[in-house]
Design brief:
The chain has helices spanning 10-39, 44-68, 74-94, 98-125, 129-162, 168-183, 187-190, 212-230, 236-244, 248-276, 278-298, 302-318, 320-329, 336-365, 368-400. The chain has 401 residues and is mainly α. It has one domain (9-197, 209-400): Growth Hormone, Chain: A. Keywords: Membrane, Transmembrane, Transmembrane helix.
Length: 401
């Protein structure tokens, strides 16, 4: 199997390009938003609650969205989602009151839910079995590439704006707004995708052919990973700032380097899964990341923390496209938007709940405990992957033969 863009269809390439532009823009928000809130004097506990409310909004909207999108074409879905996603983020940035910031996060969270229901099923439709795993990984790698350049721009843009005798708060605000403006251009390739639906139009929008038991098996391990990650990962930029007194530009470079190594891991993951199987690849990536979480929790040495940060990020993210690919292949076409949304719920519900908890723990006890709790949840998730999903994969491969 060659890693070659020409193997992908026109619609697949347009989707990849749109994801790159959108990811480049939204990265600036993701990197700078909690730093911006901190510059406004908002504490880690409140920041955690703001992150959580966006996550809860996504979680509550995902299942309705997975059914409602069956009534609309891709052009309408992309237009609505991108415009309102950016509008929600913009409201959160320009608002003076905490209440308005919460409203902005709710709007953007709901739109994120719609987008999460579209991507995976669309990739399934515009690819064949031979290139599908590679396309999932390539899409993830494209998103990471966008984040690399987005983090570099976001980290340096606020520093450059600071030179014009404006406060850090204002510099961070304008840097985020510029990134959101860039993200709006993702509409151009998205609206060039063939105007179609990603399900069988004659089917009832609430009809599914997949058993609920299978859906729960596919989503439960993902839920535990999301819960564990939410305890510490949203606060990694604050971790480097607080423990090592790093500037926003340096933090931006750290995240960009991390995403560069993730690209390498993501692109080799399909070849590992081809020989070891998808579930074993997922489990190995999670288990091997746990020691580096422990190192992050105890070290005060910046080079060691940086290396551990890089390796943990690469290992935990390299198999994520394979998780989505495996899950969507296990269900019928009309169930894919629902399952794609449910995987988002499994991730976001854990992330949203634990981000709130993690912020409070960090505020009172520091970063060590959340990192170690994250590792424990990764281990439990890996055990469930082996117990629940490995037998399904083995059975499926035998049936193919």
């Amino acid at each position: 199997m060659k890693i070659s863009i020409p193997k992908f269809s026109r619609d697949a390439k347009l989707f990849l390009f749109g994801n790159f532009i959108n990811g480049f823009g939204i990265t600036g928000f993701n990197l700078l938003f909690n730093l911006y809130l901190k510059s406004k004097g908002i504490g880690e506990g409140s920041i955690g609650r703001l992150l959580s409310v966006g996550a809860y909004s996504t979680m509550l909207m995902v299942l309705p969205a997975s059914f409602l999108i069956r009534k609309f074409s891709l052009k309408k879905i992309f237009t609505f989602t991108v415009l309102f996603l950016i509008s929600g983020y913009l409201l959160a940035v320009i608002s003076a009151s905490l209440k308005s910031i919460f409203i902005g996060m709710i709007i953007s969270g709901m739109c994120s839910a719609i987008f999460s229901c579209v991507g995976g099923p669309l990739i399934m439709e515009v690819s064949g079995p031979e290139e599908r795993t590679l396309l999932f990984s390539f899409n993830f790698a494209i998103s990471l590439s966008a984040s690399i350049f987005g983090n570099i721009l976001a980290g340096n843009l606020s520093v450059i704006l600071n030179r014009f005798n404006i406060t850090q708060e204002i510099a961070l605000k304008f840097a985020i707004i510029i990134h959101l403006f860039i993200a709006s251009f993702s509409l151009i390739p998205f609206l060039s995708i063939r105007d179609a639906r990603i399900f069988d139009e004659e089917e009832n929008i609430f009809k599914m052919h997949t058993k609920i038991g299978l859906i729960l098996k596919l989503s439960t391990p993902h839920l535990l990973v999301g819960f564990g990650a939410g305890l510490s990962i949203p606060f990694l930029n604050l971790y480097f700032r607080d423990r090592f007194s790093l500037s926003t530009s340096t933090i931006g470079y750290f995240f960009s380097i991390s995403q560069l190594t993730m690209i390498f891991g993501t692109l080799i993951a399909p070849f590992i899964s081809k020989h070891k199987g998808k579930i074993i690849t997922i489990v190995l990536s999670q288990i091997f990341s746990v020691p580096f979480l422990f190192i992050l929790s105890v070290t005060n040495n910046l080079p060691i923390a940086f290396i551990s940060f890089i390796l943990r990020s690469s290992l935990m993210n390299m198999a994520q496209p394979i998780v989505t690919n495996f899950s969507l292949e296990m269900v019928d076409k009309n169930t894919r938007p629902f399952l794609s949304g449910l995987l988002t719920i499994a991730w976001i519900s854990g992330w949203g709940l634990s981000a709130n908890i993690g912020g409070k723990i960090i505020e009172s006890k520091g970063y060590s405990l959340p990192f170690n709790l994250t590792g424990i949840f990764y281990i439990i998730s890996s055990i469930l992957y082996l117990r629940l999903l490995l037998p399904l994969e083995i059975s499926r491969e035998k049936n193919k033969k």
